[in-house]
């Protein structure tokens, strides 16, 4: 067994020490909940009658307490392709529960919005805070004290982190994530990218663009690029919260159904009354959180998780920051290139060896914690195998070497020696720079800045030819408290065009970019945000800004202290943004997770 890498060990121990008090409070909370969880046989008959009235053929089993009752929390809707398959899941999951003498009920549902649909639209300003709403919805679902375990049906961007945060408030219960898998591959990613750029340049129209996009996003299942949704699935594997190998098996296959069935059987077996109690709050510990970061770095995953991981960790009493990310990134090599960081998508990645191959390499190199409490019953080593079927029986087998070294490489010959997510800081604050998709020749950009308060203003300036020069584009008042920290993915095509024209271009923003952030150097999630007097609020057009991933610099030569911060635009109205005002007002900084709910709860 490999010795743990010294940096991984040091960072983990620092997180453990930093989290000593908050983790103890959390563990005390879930221990108290476990000890005081009501025995349903002692609950009021009227309460029970309400809970069992809709259970149909499971009524008698519930009345007699014959076995564990599993609460299903679903994020089904049929607008979101990744979650469309969940529509029929409860029927199957209830059948699988009966096979082992258990019962299952849909405890509740959560919203599931799609950043792909709201990209560049008003609804994107609700996106980050939908994570808090999902966590709150999960809390409501599980508040009925009728459940002995939880199945969490969620995949996409804010949905998995929200489900994690909500389920951790009931961390005395076992919980397993049940993904539904990616859609089959569509057109080549290079072709999709080509048409997007042609559209940004005005060389093709909306009809051609829509035809291209529809050939890419074409059927039920997760989008196949390696953005936040698929990074979520990777993290659930590295944290041991899936049935091993469940992440990237396509919907509607026999293997997918076998993995779903195993999830139900397994959650019924790891409850408090069994011999293998695995409470969710114990599974999500400091080592599991470090594994999530390591996996993110090794695969070039979504920068959104620089916000989501600290939020999930806080909900479990674990304190992690961007310095921890950056130090881990220095020793974790980049093992995967999946679109938009490479040419192949997650289906090609899975066929080449996928997340099981990555986990095996990380464990062999001592870069991940093997000794975590997984839901499978084994240590993380089981997640270094791939699932398959022997007749109708679910089995796991060794993966062997990578089947495509243009997409997946061993630790000995990585794509990059580091994980491609670096902390940059200076007199403009602290921010994340994702280097894994950016050429090393663009790691340092120093140029006059052009300051904007909306991404639409950037698009207009680009269309007018005002940005045809070396420029650092600053988009401020995009943080959690200003407007909910929308994703600014719509900036990527025009900035990419400028870069292709030979200009030195970079982006600096207190807003978000996703796993699809692309090839333009960017300092994102800048904190403190501009609203409230953060340094970005004092920048002016023409100030020289330096962004350097090599020495970790984000700075300006301007005398910011002598200036009065710019006035933030008034909050936009419509599309439900008014009722999210309480989330904006209460949100904390991006490095802590940008959450109003966790801040209010004192985490």
Automatic annotation (TrEMBL):
Source organism of the structure: Allopontixanthobacter confluentis
Positions contributing to [4Fe-4S] cluster binding: 156, 223
Protein name (database record): Phosphogluconate dehydratase
A GO cellular component annotation in the UniProt record: cytosol
Recorded metabolic or biological pathway in which this protein acts: Carbohydrate metabolism; Entner-Doudoroff pathway
Domain spans labelled Dihydroxy-acid/6-phosphogluconate dehydratase C-terminal: 407-593
InterPro entries hit by this protein: 6-phosphgluc_deHydtase (IPR004786), Dihydro-acid_dehy_C (IPR042096), DiOHA_6PGluconate_deHydtase_CS (IPR020558), ILV_EDD_C (IPR056740), ILV_EDD_N (IPR000581), IlvD/EDD_N (IPR037237)
Function of the molecule: Catalyzes the dehydration of 6-phospho-D-gluconate to 2-dehydro-3-deoxy-6-phospho-D-gluconate.
Signal peptide positions on this chain: none
């Amino acid at each position: 067994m490999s010795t743990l890498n010294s940096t991984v060990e040091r960072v983990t121990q620092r997180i453990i020490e930093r989290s000593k008090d908050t983790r103890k409070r959390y563990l005390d909370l879930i221990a108290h909940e476990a000890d005081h969880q009501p025995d349903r046989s002692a609950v009021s008959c009227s309460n029970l009658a309400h809970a069992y009235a809709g259970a149909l053929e499971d009524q008698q089993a519930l009345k007699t307490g014959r076995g564990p009752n599993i609460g299903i929390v679903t994020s089904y809707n049929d607008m979101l392709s990744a979650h469309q398959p969940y529509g029929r899941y409860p029927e199957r999951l209830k059948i699988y529960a009966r096979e082992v003498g258990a019962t299952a009920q849909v405890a509740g549902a959560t919203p599931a919005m799609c950043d792909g649909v709201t990209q560049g639209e008003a609804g994107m300003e609700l996106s980050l805070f939908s994570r808090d709403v999902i966590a709150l919805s999960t809390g409501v679902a599980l508040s009925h004290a009728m459940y002995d375990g939880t199945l969490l049906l969620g995949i996409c961007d804010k949905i998995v982190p929200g489900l994690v945060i909500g389920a951790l408030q009931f961390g005395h219960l076992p919980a397993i994530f049940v993904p539904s898998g990616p859609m089959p591959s569509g057109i080549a990613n290079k072709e999709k990218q080509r048409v997007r750029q042609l559209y940004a340049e005005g060389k093709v129209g909306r009809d051609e663009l829509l035809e291209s996009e529809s050939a890419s996003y074409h059927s039920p299942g997760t989008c196949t690029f390696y953005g936040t949704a698929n990074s979520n699935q990777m993290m659930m594997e590295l944290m041991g919260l899936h049935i091993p190998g469940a992440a990237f098996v396509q919907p509607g296959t026999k293997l997918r159904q076998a993995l779903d069935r195993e999830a139900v059987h397994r959650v019924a077996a790891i409850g408090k009354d069994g011999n293998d109690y695995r409470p969710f709050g114990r599974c999500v510990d400091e080592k599991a959180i470090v594994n999530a970061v390591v996996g993110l770095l090794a695969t070039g995953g979504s920068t959104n998780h620089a916000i989501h991981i600290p939020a999930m960790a806080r909900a479990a009493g674990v304190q992690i920051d961007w310095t921890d990310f950056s130090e881990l990134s220095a020793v974790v090599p980049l093992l995967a290139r999946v679109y938009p960081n490479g040419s192949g998508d997650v289906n090609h990645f899975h066929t080449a060896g996928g997340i099981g191959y990555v986990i095996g390499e990380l464990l062999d190199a001592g870069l991940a914690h093997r000794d975590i409490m997984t839901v499978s019953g084994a240590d993380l080593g089981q997640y270094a195998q791939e699932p398959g079927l022997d007749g109708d029986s679910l089995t796991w087998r060794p993966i062997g070497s990578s089947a495509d070294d243009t997409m997946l490489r061993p630790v000995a010959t990585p794509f990059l020696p580091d994980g491609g997510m670096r902390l940059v800081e200076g007199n403009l604050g602290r921010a994340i720079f994702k280097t894994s998709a950016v050429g090393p020749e663009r790691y340092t950009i120093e140029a006059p800045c052009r300051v904007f308060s909306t991404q639409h203003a950037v698009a207009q300036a680009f269309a007018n030819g005002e940005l045809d020069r070396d420029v650092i584009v600053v988009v401020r008042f995009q943080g959690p408290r200003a407007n909910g920290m929308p994703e600014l993915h719509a900036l990527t095509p025009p900035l990419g065009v400028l870069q292709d024209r030979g200009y030195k271009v970079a982006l600096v923003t207190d807003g978000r970019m996703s796993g699809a952030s692309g090839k333009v150097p960017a300092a994102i999630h800048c904190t403190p945000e501009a609203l409230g007097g953060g340094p970005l609020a004092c920048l002016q057009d023409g100030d020289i800004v330096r962004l350097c991933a090599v020495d970790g610099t984000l700075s300006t030569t301007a005398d910011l202290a002598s200036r009065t911060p710019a006035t933030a635009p008034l909050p936009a109205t419509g599309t439900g943004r008014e009722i999210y005002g309480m989330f904006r007002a209460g949100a904390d900084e991006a490095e802590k997770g940008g959450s109003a709910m966790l801040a209010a709860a004192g985490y």
